[in-house]
Amino acid sequence: MKTVRKRATGNGKQTRKRKRGTKMEVTGGDVASKEDSLVEIEASNPKRSRKSESMKACSSENNENKKNVGASEKHSSRVSKVVDAANNSKKLIGYHVSSAGGVSNAVFRAVEDSCRAFALFIGSSRSWKSLPLSEDEVSKFEEAIKETAFPLENIVPHSAYIMNIASLESEILSKSRQKMIEECKNCERLQLSLYNFHPGSSSGKGSKEDAINNVIESINIIHNETGSVILLVETMAGQGSTLCGKFEDIATIIKGVNNKSRIGVCIDTCHIFAAGYDIRSKEEYEKTMEKFDSIIGFSYLRALHLNDSKGPLGSNLDRHENIGRGKIGIAGFKNFMADPRFDSIPMVLETPECDYTNEMVKLYSCC
């Protein structure tokens, strides 16, 4: 044993540090902090240092596992509530599912959350680049459908946001048509029969009539370039020069389409409310649905987007809100859930906070 003597401290006492093997004993004074001592110990003993690091890693991993288990249990509980709430309901509710990692992943994500319907992007939603899906991805999607037995007719692909088939600028119009053709071909490769799209706008560079004619011509071109997919015109909020804020716009488009068996409509609850169609009370809801049926026709209804509205009635604001927290309110959604005309129609949530399982429970509870 070796004893090292230090100078006297201010109180006249000796401070002494004694080493015993690899341990350190600190007495009196302020020679070193406990933390510094531990660092010195570990530095002098690499084996102990590695063991300490290993223990820390294990502890961190265990904590992470506990978090994952807790999150998994909470998720299972939420999904169980969806299943219970949906029991005996004829409504098909889901949400816009991420297709990150491949479109096949969207199927499994939807099933994990007990979706009865869902939407997805077939390709990039904000890029002009559009390529045919690989044989591998098509095969994986087919396997996912086979494994989960998910009904293909309840899947509603959504068009890329960047497209504008109403554009009065020739370059944008041409690129939009080509991208939509590629996306529709990809739908057909996946054996998906529906394709929902935004009709677009004139961008303030021409007349509404010319823009609508471009939409009609675009649909006819896309039908000629593809085999079977049904194009669903989405009702819009009427913001700016955007088309289809009025049911009459959609009726005009349908009238001009050559193959009417391949055209349909997707109602967006936020959009029609913002466009001025009231759906809050039972009476106003019935008036709006009567207008839809007389102007467009329920025979063309193929999908529904479920969104509350941040903007008031007739505001033309395309701002989605969570169910029951916007200007429509839960009473408005009870009207849709009680309407048998929406049985067996894919209903897709596009709400901002992505609290989809809880919102599905809320909606099914309205039945």
Automatic annotation (TrEMBL):
GO terms for molecular function: hydrolase activity; metal ion binding. Residues 63-76 have a biased composition (Basic and acidic residues). The keyword DNA repair applies. SUPFAM superfamilies: Xylose isomerase-like. Keywords: DNA damage, DNA repair, Hydrolase, Metal-binding, Zinc. It comes from the Eukaryota. Residues 1-21 have a biased composition (Basic residues). One of its GO terms (biological process) is DNA repair. Residues 1-79 are annotated as: Disordered. HAMAP family: Nfo (MF_00152). Belongs to the AP endonuclease 2 family. This is Xylose isomerase-like TIM barrel domain-containing protein.
